[in-house]
């Protein structure tokens, strides 16, 4: 995980080194209840709501949310930005 100030925003990156995600499944990751069907996913729990809900929360706060699959290292990078708002502005 890494966080840094990017202009008037805070940029946060989270990545993993899991089993990776096939390119054909990248577009489905924001569909509610979607789970990639692999032997590993069959023995792990989850609802398939984490990414869709996270994206929605970030967008509700006027931020941006994106995914980047790095196939060469089998990692998924999640990057999101949120505007920095001072308590005086809120």
Describe the structure in brief.
The chain is of the alpha+beta class and 90 residues long. 17% of the residues lie in helices and 31% in strands.
Describe it.
17% of the residues lie in helices and 31% in strands. It has helices at residues 39-42, 50-60; strands spanning 2-6, 9-15, 64-70, 75-83. It has a 4-stranded antiparallel sheet with strand order 1-2-4-3.
Give the SSE order as H and E letters: EEHHEE
Helical content band: 10-25%
Instruction: Count the DSSP helices.
Output: 2
- Major β-sheet, in short? 4 strands, antiparallel
The tally of beta strands, per DSSP, is: 4
Strand order of the largest sheet: 1-2-4-3
Mean pLDDT: 79
State the shape.
globular
- What is the percentage of strand-forming residues? 25-35%
Rg measurement, Å: 15 Å
Low-confidence stretches: none
- The helix/strand class is alpha+beta
The end-to-end span amounts to 27 Å
Quickly list its features:
90 residues; alpha+beta; 4-stranded antiparallel sheet
Secondary-structure topology with pairs:
Layout: E1 2-6, E2 9-15, H1 39-42, H2 50-60, E3 64-70, E4 75-83
Antiparallel strand pairs: 1-2, 2-4, 3-4
């Amino acid at each position: 995980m890494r966080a840094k100030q990017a202009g008037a925003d805070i940029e946060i990156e989270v990545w993993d080194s899991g089993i990776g995600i096939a390119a054909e499944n990248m577009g489905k990751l924001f569909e509610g209840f979607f789970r990639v069907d692999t032997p590993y996913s069959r023995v792990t729990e989850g609802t398939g709501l984490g990414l869709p809900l996270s994206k929605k929360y970030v967008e509700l706060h006027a931020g941006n949310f994106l995914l980047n699959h790095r196939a060469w290292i089998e990692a998924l990078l999640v990057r999101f930005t949120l505007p920095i708002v001072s308590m005086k502005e809120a």
